[in-house]
Amino acid sequence: MTMIIKKPENIKINLEEALKLSLDLAVKSAKLLLVKQKKISSLKIKTKLAQGLASNADTESEKIIIDGIKKKYPLHYVLAEESAYDQYQGEMVKYKFLSEKEWVWIIDPLDGTNNFLSGLDYYGVCISLVHFGQPVVGVVLRPTNGDCFYAVKGKGAKFVRYSSGFKKKTPSIKFIKSKNKKSLSESLLVTGFATEKGQLFDQEFELFKHMMGKSRGIRRMGSAALDLCYVAKGIFDCFWERGLASWDVSAAGLICLESGVAVTDYDGQKFHPFQKTILASRAPLHNEILSLFRNRL
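The structure corresponding to this sequence follows.
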């Protein structure tokens, strides 16, 4: 798929090529992270104010991805978690100007750092290409079991599982867009929240308790990107969270949309990666939960 931009420079971007690059870089990053996780005790760990933890595994993974992107697309902007923290202190207001830029790569080199540093296997690599604030390519790869989710805007979302060592992969499976006929009381939900989010924590925790009482159960897994992808796959029925960054949701948000999942903010506004809240579930459940949120918040 080729997208031609009507500008004086007549830039042409082949989205399939961008997808292939994203997949290749995600695999390279995943291999690095698997090696690093076996040597957790030797990692250099730092605490980012209100942004959790990071280690040299995060920064080295990020470097692999950025170097690969810049080699092929030297003029594109890049918004990546670790370098964004150094440059913008992780404050969305400081980098929201990128939502108006033509081509921006949004990267989370290790989504689920707390899990990773604790030896848990629930973390992912996220790469997306954004065109004037809207994701057009998205890849989320879970290194520990090879689960890989990817999408190109307008082309649907697909799932593939890499073998151990990433030498082989299963045939790609395209997600079939469907509705969720479950009621909220029959649904398994997934969410996340952190005490670093300050005064909003109490409000979010009250919402969590309310949703717990109305659903079959709630999980808090520790990687927003993977949570969203497993909503796309149908494992979870709904994901919501406040205060996420663009790199947490950009790739996975597109994957959800292309798999038929409704994605909005808490007010029902259409998804983009620079929102303060996110709610993802299939219709008609999405409308039920959205109405509940509006009445509670």
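The CA atoms of residues 38 and 160 lie 25 Å apart.
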